[in-house]
Amino acid sequence: MGRPRKKISVTPSQEKNKKLKKNDEISDGDDSDEESEDWEEVEEAEIDDDEGDKEEALANYKPQLPEQGVQISIDGPKIFNKKRRKKQVDVGEILRQQLNRMKKEVQIEMHKTHLLCLLSRGFYLNHITRNPLISSYALSYLTDFTFDLKKVNLLFVRDFTNWFRSWFTLDKKIRSKTVDLIESLTKAFGTRSVNSLVEYVLMFISLLRIYSPKIQVRLCYALNPVPIKPDDLV
Predict the structure, then answer these.
(1) Interhelix angle for 197-211 vs 132-140, to 10°?
(2) Strand partners, 170
(3) How far is CA 117 from the centre of its chain?
(4) Where are the domains of the chain?
(5) Torsion angles phi and psi, residue 32, rounded to 5
(6) Residue 221, exposed/middle/buried by CB under 10 A (0-12, 13-18, 19+)?
(7) Model confidence over 49-94: pLDDT tens digits?
(8) What is the separation of C-alpha 122 from the centre of its chain, rounded to a whole number of angstroms?
(9) Which candidate, 141, 148, 185, places its Cα nearest to that of 164?
(10) CA-derived radius of gyration, the chain
C-alpha cells in the first residue's frame, strides 16, 4: 500500500501567484543550465472547496482547559483598588429636609385658602353695591341733583367726586361697633359720616351705578394673600 496523499487547501489567488512566479523564473534568459536542472516535477495541490469539512472540524473541536483554571489579568484604573467609603447617614439633615418639606406644603395650602377667601370677599363687596336697600338710599340723594351725561369723561368724574366729598365725610377716628356691612352702610347714608375707607368707596360706587346705567363702574379690590413660600425654613 502506498502512503496516503495529504490534501492541501490552496486558494485560487495563491495558486495563481505561484504559477506567475515560476513562469518569471523560467523566462529569465541569464539563468544557467545548472539552475534549470534543479527544478523538480511535483504534484499539483488539490483545492478543497467543500466547507463541510471545516464546519465538521469546528463542531468536533473540544478544547481542554487546565485543571488549575485560567487567570486573566487586566490593567484597570487605580480607583478599583480603592476601598469604597460607606456613606454616613446624617439623621439631623434628614429631619431638617422633612421639616422644610412639610412647611412648604402647609404654606402652599394656606396661600390657596387665603386667596380663595379674598376673592370671595371681593365678590361679596361688589354684590353689596347692588343691594336694593343700599341702592334706594343712594337714589334718595340724587333726586334733586343732575349731571350732564352726554359724555362721561374726566370732567364729569371730577365734578361728581367733588359733590360726593362735600356730602359725605370720612372719619376714621370713630369706630363702628356694627358687624353687618349692609347695616353699617345704611347708617352711614343716614348720618353722612363714614368711619371705614371700604365703606366710603362702596357708597361712591353705589351712587354712580344707581345714577345712570351708562356709567360703567368696576370695583378694584387689591388682594394681598400670604406668601406662597415660607420664610421660616431651617
Answers:
(1) 80
(2) 194
(3) 30
(4) 91-211
(5) -80, 170
(6) middle
(7) 556 677 777 777 777 777 777 777 776 665 555 556 666 778 888 8
(8) 33
(9) 141
(10) 54
The Cα 206–Cα 126 span in angstroms is 9
Letter for the amino acid at 218? R
CA 143 to chain centroid, in Å, comes to: 61
The answer to pTM > 0.70 is: no
Amino acid residing at 36 = S
Q: Which amino acid is at 157?
A: V
Which tens digit of pLDDT belongs to each residue from 178-217? 678 898 899 989 888 888 889 999 999 999 888 887 788 8
User: What CA–CA distance (Å, rounded) separates 206 from 214?
Assistant: 14
| Residues 145 and 196: beta-carbon distance below 8 Å | no
Distance between CA atoms of residues 169 and 189, nearest Å = 11
What residue has cell string 496516503? 4
Reading the block at residue 4, the C-alpha cell is: 496516503
Cell of 219: 370695583
